[in-house]
Write a structure and sequence with these properties.
Blueprint lengths: L23 H9 L6 H11 L5 H8 L3 H17 L12 H20 L10 H17 L4 H14 L25 H16 L5 H14 L8 H14 L3 H15 L1 H14 L6 H13 L3 H14 L3 H14 L2
Length: 329
């Protein structure tokens, strides 16, 4: 079957009186994403009950202290109990109003699998594989939703790099240093095909835009060929549709690649001043790298040391230890 044939509108012969969602786990995710709950409560509770994520991992996904996230889970459960919200399988007409929360859940499950909060590996394959499987199912249920296809394309393109993200010793390999010949070309080809179909629908929501950014990396056969100006433009558009300090941080990296480290550092320092990502280790590691490129080595050491304090994954810690050792010589 051609890739795009898997995402066509169902014909009349495919329409039956079977449940709208047949996969057990996906059905429960749609069930838990009840519109009577606040969106953040829906997502946090679903991640805890069905996504395979623990409270510290969910807190990291929301950039919240664990205690705050735990309170959010308690409130969501209390709301379900007090309002007597039934856990019933939603009908087909109820799926669209729950779609945004379901996609967010699957996006965060993949993110935890792609960049694990803790452990001796950066990737948790069981989470990335399950997220992709479930998004494929959603794409089959709702083939005319561009954001569903955008998310599927994004996950496929990101997952194509999975095998290149750690070396034989288990150490982290940055995007610029990865052996791109080891990227999964079948994943890339499918991701680009799905993205092309989403793009033809005309809507450019957050997942489509993120997939377009991932596609720019996927198309570059060597890091030097990356179209960074195009990526900056896409991040500009993404920030309009989904303002976020994490997106702003990613944009700062792209700006540093087009306009130099000083331009990127100015953006990062503004994020630092806002105090929105104070405990996010990637903010401090990014700042440290930009300072290093500017020759401000003592400031770089301070920033990277702070990132090392905040990092919870062993692979990230080893990488930061190496960078600090390099700066010490």
């Amino acid at each position: 079957m051609a890739i795009e044939e898997a995402y066509q509108e169902p014909g009349p012969e495919m329409l039956t009186d079977r449940p709208a969602v047949e996969d057990d786990r996906l059905r429960l995710i749609f069930t838990c994403c009840h519109p009577a709950l606040a969106a953040d409560g829906q997502i946090a509770l679903t991640l805890r009950l069905l996504g395979g994520l623990r409270t510290p991992e969910i807190a990291r996904a929301f950039l919240l202290p664990e205690a705050t996230l735990a309170q959010r889970l308690v409130r969501a459960k209390k709301k379900i109990r007090d309002a007597a919200i039934p856990y019933v399988v939603p009908s087909a007409e109820d799926l669209p109003e729950r779609l945004a929360s379901v996609l967010h859940v699957l996006y965060l499950v993949f993110n935890e699998g792609y960049s694990a909060t803790a452990g001796a590996t950066v990737v948790r394959r069981e989470l990335t594989a399950e997220a992709i499987r479930l998004v494929r199912l959603v794409a089959g249920l709702m083939p005319a939703e561009p954001e569903v296809l955008g998310l599927l394309a994004l996950l496929l393109l990101q997952d194509s790099r999975r095998g290149a993200r750690q070396d034989a010793q288990g150490d982290l390999v940055l995007l610029a240093d990865q052996d791109r010949s080891s990227w999964d070309q079948d994943r890339i080809d499918e991701g680009l095909a799905v993205l092309a179909r989403a793009a033809r629908m005309g809507s450019r929501g957050p997942y489509v835009l993120q997939a377009l950014i991932a596609a720019e990396h996927a198309r570059a056969t060597v890091a030097a060929d990356t179209d960074w100006p195009r990526i900056v433009t896409l991040y500009d558009e993404l920030l309009v549709t989904q303002p976020s300090p994490v997106i702003a941080l990613n944009r700062a990296v792209a700006v540093s690649m087009t306009s130099g480290p000083a331009a990127g550092l100015a953006i990062v320092d503004a994020i630092v001043a806002s105090d929105e990502l104070a405990d996010y280790h990637l903010l401090h590691s990014t700042r440290g790298e930009l300072l290093r490129r500017l020759g401000r080595l003592e400031d770089a050491r301070v920033a990277l040391a702070r990132a090392r304090e905040l990092a919870t994954n062993e692979v990230d810690r080893r990488y930061l230890d190496r960078r600090l050792q390099e700066l010490a010589h």
